[in-house]
Amino acid sequence: MEPMTPTLAPCAQTPVLHLCIATEQTLANVLPLRLLPWGQVIIIASDQLRQRSQARLQQLLRWAESEAHQRGLFPLDAVRVVELPDTGMGWSGLLAFARRLAAELTLQHPGQSIDLNVTGGTKLMSQAFSTAFAGQARMVYCNTQGAALEVLDPEGRAPTLALPPDLLSLQDYLFAQGFEVSGFQSAADAPWLATIEQRLPLTLSLVREAQRLRLTPGYKSKRLLTVLHGIAAESLPNKSMRHSFEPVCECMAPHLPVWRIMVDLLQTHGIAEVLAWDAPEEEQPGLLRLRWTSEEAARYLAGGYLEEYAFLCAHALGLPPGQIGMNVRLRLFDSRLPESYDYQELDVVIAWGNRLWVLECKAGVQVHNGAGQDVLNKLDTLKARVGGALGEGWLLTPLPLREDIEQQLPVIERARNYGIRLVNGGRELSQLPGTLAAALQRPDVAPTLDSAPRDLRQALDEAAAAHYRSQAR
């Protein structure tokens, strides 16, 4: 890093010299660096930032060096850090420092265009640099919320530069936030996309009819969807139990119409095959033995279907493949943990409009049975750490949340306080494509997904009618 009075080595004539002030919100500097032409970058790093958030400075430095490399520049020559010893420094000290830097750049780079991004730093700091570079540099301000790079000319005549909504891909965004992606699934993987689209009818059934499937009788007090979730989850590898994937599972299942249709759907869409289904008497429970077609298929039925549904809703918006990811596994840069250890896995993530949407999917009853507040605490931390100041957190669950239920009211209140959007119940989830289109400002897109199989809905309707008739007696 540079000393207090910076001495910058002369460099070859380049299109633009770009100055920026390092800040806690990395995107304020990252977006202009991606949008504007430049040949050299000078990052001004205050004592306060270096002492309080060295990691943020490293994120910006890493991004600038990567961007320089992509532009065919040598990072060590193209990116410099200048230390600003602002501890105890007031207006006069900041202004003097900025003027010394402006004078030195004028001498060492005569005639070279300069862009000064004044978005970062304290207000006093940005004002000092604006004053010192007045008439020497073009001032820009990154209005991330307004999706624009404002050019601060005195006459107010310079046109605003739009920030394209796909300026940063999902991986770009996460890289800027200090994360490397160790793996994820996206629409760029055509065979994977074809697989999840092929089983969309089953996915729609599980998501939109979740409440009624959880009321469909199973064996003793267990219900259909609870049973299927359970046997799928128990088949998956479990490190604490020290067992690997178990491809064969079994449960007690009655020969009711809804059960038969659901089991047929599992076979039709390649999730499982029936090995045996004992039938002592009509509509009585018999032992159902299934073989999962793969570990991924069991993971799907254990709750992964909700993640696929959320992904397909986002995919229906017509965004480029690189903007959406599912099962996004993250590692912190410079992590000392083993490579097999991920910082976090995100269910569905969307990068669009220079902000990040983190969609947390809970297909079971975790949100409803007292663990909801823990889920919200985690999501609140993620949306801030991974998404930054404009990060969005959405919690998706197929079962409705009700304020008149004592365990669920705190979840609703905490989500409201955290600014987390709840998308709960079959009705809200069925509207998710349109809800996402509105949030991502895609009014020109009218996304729809095919409806769930009619025979399942009809069987559920008939089961509900039979239940009400029996109650009436």
Keywords:
six-stranded mixed β-sheet; seven-stranded mixed β-sheet; 3 domains; 42% helix; Trna Endonuclease, Chain: A, domain 1; 473 residues; Rossmann fold; 18 helices; single chain; 16 strands; disordered N terminus; alpha/beta
**Helix percentage range:** 40-55%
User: Shape from CA axes?
Assistant: elongated
Share of residues in strands: 15-25%
Strand order of the largest sheet: 3-2-1-4-5-6-7
Please report the distance between the alpha carbons of the first and last residues: 83 Å
What top-tier CATH class of the largest domain fits best?
Answer: Alpha Beta
Count of beta strands: 16
Write down the oligomeric state: single chain
Layout of secondary structure:
Elements: E1 16-21, H1 27-35, E2 40-46, H2 47-52, H3 54-70, H4 75-78, E3 79-84, H5 91-108, E4 113-117, H6 123-132, E5 138-143, E6 148-151, E7 161-162, H7 170-176, E8 179-185, H8 190-198, H9 200-208, H10 210-213, H11 224-235, E9 248-254, H12 257-268, E10 272-277, E11 285-292, H13 295-315, E12 324-332, E13 344-352, E14 355-361, H14 372-387, E15 392-397, H15 409-418, E16 421-424, H16 425-430, H17 432-439, H18 454-472
How would you sum up this structure, described in words?
Residues 1-14 have low confidence and may be disordered. By secondary structure, the chain is of the alpha/beta class. The termini are far apart. It folds into three domains: 16-163, Hypothetical protein VC1899 like domain (Restriction endonuclease-like) (Rossmann fold, 3-Layer(aba) Sandwich), CATH 3.40.50.10770; 181-187 and 306-439, Trna Endonuclease, Chain: A, domain 1 (3-Layer(aba) Sandwich), CATH 3.40.1350.10; 191-298, no CATH class. 40% of the residues are buried. The chain has helices at 27-35, 47-52, 54-70, 75-78, 91-108, 123-132, 170-176, 190-198, 200-208, 210-213, 224-235, 257-268, 295-315, 372-387, 409-418, 425-430, 432-439, 454-472; strands at 16-21, 40-46, 79-84, 113-117, 138-143, 148-151, 161-162, 179-185, 248-254, 272-277, 285-292, 324-332, 344-352, 355-361, 392-397, 421-424. It is 42% helix and 21% strand. It is built from 18 helices and 16 strands. The strands form three sheets. It has a seven-stranded mixed beta sheet with strand order 3-2-1-4-5-6-7, sandwiched between helices. It has a six-stranded mixed beta sheet with strand order 8-12-13-14-15-16, with helices on both faces. Strands 9-11-10 form a three-stranded antiparallel beta sheet. α12 (257-268) packs antiparallel against α18.
